[in-house]
Amino acid sequence: MWSDVFHAVFAPGFFQNGSVRQALLLGSATAILSGMVGVFAVLRGQSFAGHALGDFGATGASGAFLLGAPAIWGFLTVGLLGGTAMDVLGRRPRERDVATGITLTFILGLGALFLYFDTTHSNTTGAPMTILFGSIFLIDPALVPITLSLAILTLMLLFVLYRPLLLSSLSPDLARARGVPVRVVSILFMSALAMTVEQAAILIGALLSTALLIGPAATAIRLVKRPGQAMTVAALVGLLATWLGILCAYDSYNWPPLHRGWPVSFFVAALLLLFYLAASAGATSISRVRIRRNPYRHFPQTWKKVASPRERGDA
Amino acid sequence: MKQLMRKIAPLSSTERTVEDTTRDAVLEVRGVSVRFGARDVLRNVNFVVREGEFMGFIGPNGAGKTTLLRVILGLLTPTSGSVHIDGLPARHGNSFVGYVPQKIQLEPDTPMRARDLVSLGLDGHRFGVPLPSKRRRLKVDAALAAVHAQSFADAPVGRLSGGEQQRLLIAQTLLTKPKLLLLDEPLSNLDIRSAHEVVNLVAEIAKEQHVAVMLVAHDMNPLLSVMDRIVYLADGKALMGPVDQVVQSSVLSQLYGYPVEVLRVKGRILVVSGPGTEASAPEEEPLSYVE
């Protein structure tokens, strides 16, 4: 009986399949990295920039297809260049969205051109699908060590930047006065963000790479209130969504309508939305309980109950 | 004009009796001028802030307060003149200067407790991840206690009030062991009660920890009971001295370059534009500075 349940959940061959194992390994590394970097992207209000970086990668990858080079280098090159451009153009927070938008539209236009050439002039007909929706089961094994080392390097960069990044995210003025090289920190973080998003883009596609960046981070900050904890929870949420997504995608090979399997990126994105909604509902009910127990818990000095007009008898 | 000169002249002598010159000068601003293109933002600004002194830095919007602050922080090089902090030229990243920004951008969901924000004062400028230790915790606790923030030490910062966040910013600055505490408009976003708390707290810190305080504000009234001296900035020019000497209709009219009137109402001071502003514009003559 238990083995029936087991086989229903894990379709036969799940643990033996080499490309599943490779997908789990790469997916885990990317999920951990995306979750941790994502907390800072959310804290700094750079979700839009994160999304733009995914689209930049798509342009790079379609250019790489055109040249016959591995997509990963296209993703990384254009991602890093676009990230730097956004950072240089958007010096002030208010300019940032405009800078992102302008850089994004130009690079997307270029991407449309490359994809057009990819599909009409060369024989890479699957290119748009691979670039936009990922290829987690089809990664060239030779790229696995490269992707893993890039993930580790990016994570190390994030840990090195940790404190000055927190300080300059809270107040660039304060950080500058304390001697933090705010510009350098900002550009380095943008590079880390680009590396993270592009690695996710290879696995679950350029369109949904932001899901793995923002989803776990947004879920984590609803649940915990410390930067280190938020990074850990975000990494775990990302891991869970990735593993479950890969499992569902593997199982879906027997599903209608085509019996060819559903894309991993759909499952990952759907699961992340589910987690976020659950965390939001949970956080709201937790804070309701806390307020019922002690309404002035976080506001001991400043908050006093103010009588409503009806209670005062004015009405 | 001569009358005016005579009125300002005694200022420097009175100022000398009020200013305790035996104390070390922490901040010395000497002849600082800043010009952006054709516009003079600061013109020959001079003043000294000494150890343990509470200096109110008052001026209307657009007077050049922020520019002078940036010069003191070493973020802007003046066109001429010099700024010395504890005897050394101003530079950014000077640990003798504790800077408290006007406000910080915090979403309600910011994953950070009050304690985490304060601990950035210890080593927020260093690269790498902090390692928790008992010594660290004790230092952070002491800073939280200095601003009376123990009761909300573990609350998420994004959900605290403006006054509470301001106190945390002061606490994190105290951990850098500053000789000069520089507060940029700390009262502008606060309600009257929180503003009062922050002012008293800063005065307490100045006295107990012998820190020189320079508090920037556009309204001097909340500071009247605590400040030792005032730097009044208008139109890029500055005067320093005791409040009663500097804040006078004649003195300020000269500083602003048009007639203003100082009204004292129930212990509060109002600076309003004077009668006949258009009729009698004052002569364009250089002002004698307090030096």
In the CATH hierarchy, the architecture of chain B is 3-Layer(aba) Sandwich
Q: Looking across the biggest beta sheet of chain B, what order are the strands in?
A: 6-7-8-3-9-10
Which fold name corresponds to the CATH topology of chain A? ABC transporter involved in vitamin B12 uptake, BtuC
How many separate domains make up the residues of chain B?
Answer: 1
CATH superfamily of chain A: ABC transporter involved in vitamin B12 uptake, BtuC
SS-derived structural category of chain B? alpha/beta
How many alpha or pi helices of chain A? 13
Total E-strand runs of chain A: 0
SSE string of chain B:
HEEEHEEEHHHEHEEEHHEE
> If helices are DSSP runs of H or I spanning 4 or more residues, what is the number of helices of chain B?
8
Helical/strand content category of chain A? mainly alpha
Total beta strands of chain B:
12
Fraction of residues in helix of chain B = 25-40%
In N-to-C order, the SSE pattern of chain A is HHHHHHHHHHHHH
Low-confidence segments of chain B, given as residue ranges, are 1-17
